[in-house]
Amino acid sequence: EEGLRQLEQSIKNMHIQHDSMDSGRRFIDVKISPEMYYCINLLNLLTVTAEGKNGFTESRCQILLTLKQCDEMLKRGDFCWPLKQALVSFLLHVYIDTEFGFEDDIATIWSILETIINDVEYFLGSITNREKTATGNIATHNSKVIHRIVTPSWIKSLKLAATQYIFDTIVPTIGAMFQRNMNINDSQRAIMQRACKVLVDLYNSTDNGLHRTAVFDAIDIGTTIPDINEILQPLNYPKELAVLPSKSGEVSSSFALAVSQSKTHAAVLLSKLTSLSKKESFIDDVEHEFEEMVVTMVNIKRKSHHAFKGSCTIEFPEIVRSLITLLDINEINLSDDLALMALKSIRKMVEMENKSKTTPAVDWDTEDWIAYEKEIVNKQNTLTDLGAVDLMVTLVAQSEGENVKMECIRVSVALLLGGNEKVQGRFLEIFEADLDNGFMGALKALCFTVFDRLKKTESERMEEMRKEANGDMESLADQVGMMDEVVHSVEVDADHQRKKNIEDMRLLLRFMQLLCEGHHSGLQNFLREQTHGGIIHGKTFDFVTYFCSTMSTNEKLINAESIGVANQLFDTLIEVVQGPCVANQRAITGTKVVDSCKAIFQSFVGKHELAEKGFEGDENDPDIMALKQKCATILLSLLEGNPDEEIYLKIGETLDVGVIRERIAKVYSHYVTTE
Q: Among 372, 366, 385, which Cα is nearest to 518's?
């Protein structure tokens, strides 16, 4: 009861904020209290644990939150759509779409269904009101004011929050209830009639292809249940999925267009399969099955010996050679999709030796894999002997698809992990014998392409962060107010592309770091200057100087999301120069790396600057501390091993001793207070 009273008070506070009538304001923010935000995240966590019809987890969750409590919270949740979305999603996975069903409290289930139908009817009514507003029929509605719902981690318009609640959660929940095929009395039949009607109305109210697909799927389930089908018949429900053009005249998605044009059962099946392929549980299952396949490949000798009783034993090297033959671009031209799967198989052969991680090797820290070093090195050496390194060099140099090239780099990272000298030696042998310098040329092109994309997306993101920090969100908010669904889709795509750019740049830099790991002087020098038979190649490219030139640009784009690229860039430069590699020390000193280090030492101070770059804490953020530490390490590396006097002079003239002294004092103070 106390919890419900607190919920009611939070909703009252949200109403007060929502009804604020300040005519000078463009946005009205409705803030979710920290307690409610915690409750939403806890519900989402419990929901994730119950996905996949796990009877034991479902029963534990049911003890924590009963149906009656869910019903009460939904009734009192009013327009707090994120809370209601979390509750209905919890209900779907814990009580409805479950292993054992909900036979004990049918009455409450019907009460909940009635509540969420009320929410859909309210949503549909608000759409009608907005249309009237557009024609001037509701004079009191201020369409220029945008109501936003605010939590500690995100901001979205109330309209978008309601849309997500309806289409992403309520619609599949109604479909799941249809699937339960419950016996219904007269009063329950009336509720079910309302449920069917709101689905049909929702379908007709939107031109969003994904939303229409979700509603159609729920209706399609209903048509297979005799009682529901009987209710649907008079409602003129959609018999086939059709997607309307949006108000701009464009179809909402290319997939939706394909479905609308074909209008076949095959298209509907494709729709459902596409929807399924985006579910995390499905993706996890696919990944698990893929790893099981790789395990079978690795253990093929034992398995085939047992299966064929010794008459046809297949050896592991035969499997690897077959994969390499399939991937060899000079022998067979596989599609990119098949090539990616084959390359991933080779990568997993190394990664599966690390029993503590299932993530790609590029994401591992030393402590993540060092306990399995012997097994990993053995597998790296075996694959190198079988021609894996040769294949990676060939594919990067000759493949047309960027995705295939990047997957080859991921495989190479797994092969080089820990600075495997045998793998490094084979790479160098192939590089020096490459008359066309094809691999290095392709690597250069990849670096240029990825870094250019990264500059563009991070420049845009820095501007967004600056506006957020200064409370200037007008441009973004205007878009949200005009076309929530489109902006949400665009933002998701942009965020995905931004993260991909960051991951791709980190991957390329990590690969070149591992080429030089352990002070491999041959590859350190080769990254600076490619030679053939002791003669500088006509197509040589200085990666060392290029990295340094990108640093001055990267330094201005470092934010909370991209700082990993900056840290990896320093890691790579440190590995390129340590040993020392005197020629690389001279090359780096001739660039503006020392200036960049000075600028970084002086940056990331003060709450406002940190907020503009997306950092929520202070300058003792672990990533910022690591970055400044690596600045000091690269300077030390430049001074390693009695270098030229010119290097001493360059560092001495550029660095501000006062800045260094201040940095030492801050680090010492942080150490004293935390240790």
A: 366
